[in-house]
């Protein structure tokens, strides 16, 4: 029984739970480590994303017989120029649209309240479930606006902290690009024989999984944001650049991203011209259909091969556990775990087949 897979798996789970319980009992000892981990987490994630975006460029430059240090410095220079150009082009527009949006937010809140009051006056024409929803929402619009304002202030404070912390990003990125081939052998050296080969193969598969997801998801998000911007400019929607950037940012969240992106756009359209709500909905529908049927299948393919129901379940669960970071990291984390499990299963099948042949 000790050699059975289910028994070994059960023992491993019990040990993991015991370790977690012990950590919770003596968490004061690990508080400094937790603080350090939180401090470097975001810069490390950003550096990892930039690593997978810039590694192909570094490899291409090295293929042109450029030394590694020169290739890395060239990539850093390219990143600085790219960010400077983007900031110079869209910074003033975002600043101007953001100031107008902040100034007109009370008007939007008032319009939303008026819409709810109008619907409340039409109670007798509405089904019971709609009446109950309106009664729950009545009088809460202002509270929602205040909550959004508080969230925005916290977000801006966090953004300032992020800007301060991102000084670590170039440091992490430089060594990721410089020593990228050393990580896998370093870990594999703790093992020997067949297990060492399995570690190397698994790390290679993990690298390919992360590369496919990060490069594909960012490209898809950029294309979706571009389509939304073009559509919003065509219909003359106010704050088109900010709303398109919101759509680009939220698109990194599978399935839920489009709904998060269209909500502020619909509200702005309603305030500007109620008929424009229809055009915004049509633009979002067209963009998402193009993304889901043409762009994603060709850009990302079956990088993670996750069922849509699994994606929704993961996002909802991760959001409740870890908030926005849980929502963003749920899918790549699942992809990593899935890759490890698949490799473990393949390893056990190989061992079992080898044992059968020996018999």
Using the alpha-carbon principal axes, give the shape.
Answer: globular
Total count of helical runs of at least 4 residues: 12
Structural class: mainly alpha
Q: State the major sheet.
A: none
| Helix/strand order | HHHHHHHHHHHH
Q: Uncertain runs with pLDDT below 50, 5 residues or more?
A: none
Overview of the structural elements:
The protein has 359 residues and is mostly helical. It has helices at residues 5-25, 27-63, 68-120, 128-137, 141-165, 168-178, 183-188, 193-235, 240-250, 256-272, 276-299, 308-358. Helix 2 crosses helix 6 (168-178). It starts with a helix and ends with a helix.
Q: What key attributes describe this structure?
A:
single chain; 359 residues; mainly alpha; globular
Summarize the structure.
With 359 residues, this protein is mostly helical. Helices cover 86% and strands 0% of the residues. Helix 3 packs across helix 6 (168-178) and helix 10 runs antiparallel to helix 11.
How do the strands and helices of this protein lay out in sequence?
Elements (H helix, E strand, L loop, with lengths): L4 H21 L1 H37 L4 H53 L7 H10 L3 H25 L2 H11 L4 H6 L4 H43 L4 H11 L5 H17 L3 H24 L8 H51 L1
């Amino acid at each position: 029984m000790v050699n059975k897979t289910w028994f070994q798996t059960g023992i491993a789970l019990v040990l993991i739970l015991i370790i977690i319980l012990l950590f919770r009992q003596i968490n004061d000892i690990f508080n400094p480590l937790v603080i350090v981990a939180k401090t470097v987490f975001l810069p490390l994630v950003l550096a990892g994303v930039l690593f997978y975006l810039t590694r192909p460029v570094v490899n291409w430059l090295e293929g042109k017989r450029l030394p590694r240090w020169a290739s890395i410095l060239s990539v850093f220079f390219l990143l600085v120029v790219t960010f400077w150009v983007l900031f110079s082009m869209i910074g003033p527009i975002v600043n101007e649209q953001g100031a107008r949006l902040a100034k007109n937010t009370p008007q939007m809140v008032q319009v939303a309240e008026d819409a709810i009051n109008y619907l409340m006056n039409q109670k007798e024409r509405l089904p019971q479930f709609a009446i109950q929803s309106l009664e729950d929402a009545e009088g809460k619009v202002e509270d929602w606006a205040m909550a959004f304002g508080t969230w925005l202030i916290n977000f801006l404070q966090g953004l300032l902290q992020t800007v301060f912390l991102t000084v670590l990003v170039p440091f992490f990125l430089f060594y990721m690009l410089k020593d990228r081939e050393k990580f896998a052998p370093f870990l594999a050296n703790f093992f020997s024989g067949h297990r060492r080969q399995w570690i190397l193969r698994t790390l290679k598969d993990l690298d390919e999984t992360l590369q496919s997801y990060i490069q594909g998801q960012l490209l898809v998000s950029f294309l979706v944001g571009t389509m939304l911007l073009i559509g919003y400019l065509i219909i003359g929607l106010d704050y088109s650049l900010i709303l398109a950037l919101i759509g680009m940012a939220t698109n990194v969240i599978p399935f839920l991203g489009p709904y998060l992106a269209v909500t502020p756009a619909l509200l702005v359209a309603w305030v500007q011209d109620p008929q424009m709500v229809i055009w915004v909905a049509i633009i979002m529908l067209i963009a998402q259909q193009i993304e889901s049927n043409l762009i994603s299948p060709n850009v990302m393919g079956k990088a993670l091969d996750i069922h849509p129901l699994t994606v929704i379940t993961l996002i909802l669960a991760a959001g409740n556990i870890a908030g926005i970071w849980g929502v963003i990291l749920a899918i790549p984390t699942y992809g990593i775990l899935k890759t490890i499990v698949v490799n473990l299963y393949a390893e056990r099948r190989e061992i079992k087949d080898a044992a059968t042949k020996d018999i």
